[in-house]
Specification:
With 591 residues, the protein is of the alpha+beta class. The protein is built from 17 helices and 22 strands. Among the domains are: 94 residues, Beta Barrel (OB fold (Dihydrolipoamide Acetyltransferase, E2P)); 129 residues, GAD-like domain (Gyrase A, domain 2), CATH 3.30.1360.30. The structure holds one RNA strand of 77 nucleotides.
RNA sequence: GGCGCCGUAGCUCAAUUGGUUAGAGUACUGGACUGUCGAUCCAGUGGUUGCGGGUUCGAGUCCCGUCGGCGUCGCCA
């Protein structure tokens, strides 16, 4: 090693030691006769002094040091003079009096500095990621990520899981997300796909007798990005045999409690609370509700039917729903202008046709531009149903059920954030269970699997696969943290006949099911144990445990919203020769 | 693909209703200084206002297009 210590470890007890430190110049203070340099590495900062007590010849060289130069300094540890101890630094009681200085690498014209107060734009941070990653905040996040992954690995190791790697080059399955494709050189015209998840491999491992499998698995989905979504992301993937839902959920309960304790120092009581999908949608309008605050959805469809107000009346008579939320004491905070903005928001983002609202007067009466379309008696009933008190703001969505869900979930989240209804440091863990097996895709005019096509229906719902697929519920469970889906899993189908039936329901005839998933159907008839599992989104765990707003801050080298790497410039052009070898011709758009 | 926000010095930002030579802080360069720790003081360098077009006597500012970053809807089994 070029160094004897890190920049975070010297204390008064090292007095008179001769030490060698290496690191980056965090800052320098040139006083003429004396030059102070704060030397930084990922362990901390140490003040190095060049001056009359050190080698005089060093001072002229020390004067040339600038931010982010990489240097090696040898010197003697000394207590700082009285009155110059820096309590902000862990090493603040000492300083190193330099005797030798070597500039290992000069930093010329840095586009920005890890030390600067106002962070530069994210594009610049991503382009020069090596500078951004020097920031203590980024280093803490990557350390947190490392600790979370180690905590997970240790936990599953203690529980007798085997870590098995699965292929990155696999077969494309048109179901689900868009695949990243890799052309095959050896097989002209054929392609591998990068895995959206190791789903089928881990099921096959169960059939192979590896009854407790775990993997930190990189997954790829070629879909549009969001603040919490990257095209390549990391899952803690696990699968168990001879289990029921409670076994998987209980195993994860234990993991969550351990991580919360070890990482955040909080006690999370287990078992974590569970709620069915239907209840979540009814009470919160979303399958991953944020339970850190109330403001639940309240149904007023029956009352709306009595109103003269055309929108309410028509919606309730045509099978739609009229639901609302009560923003407690929101009447003053939200002006008419603010409410107009909320209306634009729900129209623009969720396809709402409008938003009805009432403010609750000091005497408890509902007041709004639409109030004249309601009898006093009806207004009183609505107020009572909504638990209205003076000063409250009531917001309503009247539309088809799914629209009211989207609109009110959006409003609920936005208002809760704006009105600070929860402490951002609070952590809430829960399960949402019993998801529907299928959703009807009106564009494709067919059923699609809500989770994936290998999800087992509840035993009592198997008959519904034939009679009423919409009503069939899956043995599925999502882990929800603070209103985010942090993971999801299911018990899998282990009966080839049920699997064939589901494939059939999803519009696959026997031949194409055999073509795509024949290996699975075969395996399901050659000794398949009952099994199930779950995958946790590690990037999101880091986001939530680290209180970060962007998934990009949890990943060392993330992609931009347009799925590019600003540092390397990927994706990039390739030679014609490479394309020819791959039997691929590139056709640019508009040509 | 839709909607929205942003783009001015290396960096972070300002620039009145469209009006003179586009400013400040910081970084950088030179100088002063033996105890600072966001060091201080003096002086200086630094600009195709992302790019292209348009409106106007006049555009950083208004309009259209385009590129890039971000947010969001669709999408994400």
């Amino acid at each position: 090693m070029l160094r004897t210590h890190t920049c975070g470890e010297l204390r008064s007890s090292n007095k008179d030691n001769t030490v060698t430190l290496c690191g980056w110049v965090d800052s320098y203070r040139d006083h003429g006769g004396t030059v102070f340099v704060d030397l930084r590495d990922r362990y901390g900062l140490t003040q190095v002094v060049f001056g009359p007590t050190g080698e005089d010849a060093l001072t002229p060289i020390a004067k040339t040091l600038r931010g982010e130069d990489v240097i090696k300094v040898t010197g003697v540890v000394a207590p700082r003079p009285d009155g110059t101890v820096n309590p902000k630094l862990q090493t603040g009681e000492i300083e190193v009096h330099a005797q030798q200085l070597e500039i290992l690498n000069k930093c010329n014209k840095a586009p920005f500095f890890p030390t600067q107060m106002d962070l530069p734009g994210e594009d610049l941070r991503l382009k020069h990621r090596y500078i951004d990653l020097r920031r203590p905040e980024m280093q803490q996040t990557l350390l947190l990520r490392s600790r979370i992954i180690k905590g997970m690995r240790d936990y599953f190791d203690e529980n007798n899981f085997i870590d098995v790697e699965t292929p990155i080059l696999g077969r494309s399955t048109p179901e689900g997300a868009r695949d990243y494709l890799v052309p095959s050189r050896i097989h002209a015209g054929k392609f591998f796909a990068l895995p959206q998840s190791p789903q089928l491999y881990k099921q096959i491992l169960m059939m192979a007798g590896y009854d407790r499998y775990v993997q930190v698995a990189r997954c790829f989905r070629d879909e549009d990005l969001r603040a919490d979504r990257q095209p390549e992301f990391t899952q803690l993937d696990m699968e168990m045999s001879f289990v029921e839902m409670d076994d998987i959920v209980g195993m994860i309960d234990g993991l969550v409690a351990k991580l919360a304790k070890d990482i955040l120092g909080i006690d999370v009581p287990t078992p974590l609370p569970r709620m069915t999908y239907d209840e979540a949608m009814e009470r919160f309008g979303h399958d991953a509700p944020d339970l850190r605050y109330g403001m639940e959805l309240i149904d007023c469809t029956d009352l709306a039917a009595e109103a003269e107000f055309r929108v309410f009346k028509m919606v309730s008579e045509s099978g739609g729903r009229v639901r609302g939320i009560n923003a407690k004491q929101g009447g003053e905070k939200y002006s008419r202008r603010d409410i107009d903005k909320l209306t634009d928001y729900v129209i623009q983002d969720f396809g709402a046709k409008g938003m009805a609202w009432f403010k609750v007067d000091a005497d408890g009466k509902l007041n709004s531009t639409i109030a004249k379309n309601f009898s006093d008696d009806l207004l009183a009933k609505i107020a009572e149903r909504m638990g209205a008190e003076p000063g409250d703001l009531l917001l309503f969505s009247a539309d088809e059920w799914d629209v009211t869900c989207r609109v009110l979930n959006g409003l609920r989240r936005r208002l809760a954030a704006e009105m600070k209804l929860y402490n951002p440091n609070d952590m809430n863990f829960s399960w949402v269970v019993e998801f529907p097996m299928f959703e009807f895709d009106s564009e494709a005019n067919r059923w699609v699997a809500m989770h994936h096509p290998f999800t087992a229906p509840r035993p009592q719902d198997v008959a519904l696969l034939d009679s009423d697929p919409a009503k069939a519920r899956a043995i599925a469970y999502d882990l929800v943290i603070n209103g985010s889906e942090a993971g999801g899993g299911t018990i899998r189908i282990h009966d080839s006949n049920v699997q064939k039936k589901v494939f059939n329901l999803l519009g696959m005839d026997e031949a194409s099911a055999q073509e795509r998933f024949g290996f699975l159907l075969d395996a399901l008839q050659l000794g398949a144990p009952p099994h199930g599992g779950i995958a946790l989104g590690i990037d999101r765990f880091v986001m939530l445990f680290g209180k970060l707003d962007s998934i990009r801050d949890c990943i060392a080298f993330p992609k931009t919203q347009k799925a590019t790497d600003m540092m390397t410039g990927a994706p990039g052009e390739v030679d014609q020769k490479q394309l020819r070898e791959l039997h691929v011709r590139s056709v640019k758009p508009h040509e």
